[in-house]
């Protein structure tokens, strides 16, 4: 791992400041001046309990040695972290400099409330650090109103998991379209009635994330450009129906109506399903012999194409941002710049933490411990991926409950059109309130 020496780094920053001017005003008047040295500065960083956190803590002494700054870590469980942010950021605390947050849940809320500093000029102004190296899906998710407010550190995409042995026995190729997936699921279930052709999340809220790939690939979306609900469109109704039929039509088992990923994965791990499309970050649950009875038969493929092509989600599960009320803006940025550098992202990737940098996924050292098929699927899904897997609103949990209603209706064999119409009306009302 390489990090430029303190002297070289700050001379380069100072030169840039003189030539181009790097003093940047943020929305509340705070400033980031990259020409400032940060020796002796204490950077207060709040992080979630995560393998990324445990790894970065081991590497931080190098950053401290190179910069002369001290990093003070506050580490909390996810729920505790949210509670603290809700209280402290809302109160305008200056006790947090860098925060690890969930863009899917909190980017719109935090950015619209003015909690996050504008770092657009920083990310776009450092050619060596290279913002263009970040995949477009995660990068779009940490952007608000064309302003960059965060840097992705942990990502995931939808990947198609499949049973190699069952496909081979049935004489089938790996599905490349949703139509092929449905046909393959039907054929394998016919050969093995005890095996579900396809298994997936069924819980109203839990299923939304994985259903999104079916929605986007069918040409649908959650919200129209004018801010109204899009879940009653022909494309959305078709996606709801397809997802429900795919799960219900190719199994003889009673479908658990409350499955999230652990329950759905368990069905596949126990050899009772041929296909599942879910997060690539969970792949070790399928390939670990202590967890999966079919670990040696698991294959990986890009998400199949629908009418609109292959459009799985490609999202940032976690990101780093600067607290707008921090008095250590320059030091906070320099910490983020280091923690999201190509070198650190490479280190994280080797440990199984999936980052957003394209260059890392092209690095053989970074991907050496990943299944080759998975790496290829990640690259393809990364290029095609959409930067959301749920409606990007302020009250995310409530939105998921609403748009998830037609999923439940479809899986149970109910009236999808009626469910979509009802949910569309409720979602329209929700969006009006959410925008206020």
Q: Give me the CATH architecture of the largest domain, please.
A: 3-Layer(aba) Sandwich
Examine the coordinates and then state which fold CATH places here, giving the name of the CATH topology of the largest domain.
D-Maltodextrin-Binding Protein, domain 2
* Whole-angstrom Rg: 23 Å
Query: Globular, elongated, flat, extended or rod-shaped: what is the shape?
Result: globular
Helical segment tally? 19
Main sheet? 8 strands, mixed
> CATH superfamily membership of the largest domain, which one?
Periplasmic binding protein-like II
If you had to describe this structure to a student in words, what would you say it looks like?
The protein has 436 residues and is an alpha/beta fold. It folds into two domains: 6-156 and 315-373, D-Maltodextrin-Binding Protein, domain 2, CATH 3.40.190; 158-313 and 391-435, 3-Layer(aba) Sandwich (D-Maltodextrin-Binding Protein, domain 2). The protein has 19 helices and twelve strands. It has helices at residues 6-20, 51-67, 78-88, 103-112, 120-124, 136-141, 164-170, 178-191, 206-217, 234-248, 261-269, 284-287, 329-339, 342-350, 358-361, 372-384, 396-403, 405-412, 416-435, and strands at residues 24-25, 31-32, 42-48, 70-76, 98-101, 143-144, 147-148, 151-163, 196-198, 273-279, 298-301, 314-322. Strands 3, 4, 5, 8, 9, 10, 11 and 12 form an eight-stranded mixed β-sheet that branches. It has a two-stranded antiparallel ribbon with strand order 1-2. The longest helix is centred in the last third of the chain and has 20 residues, at 416-435.
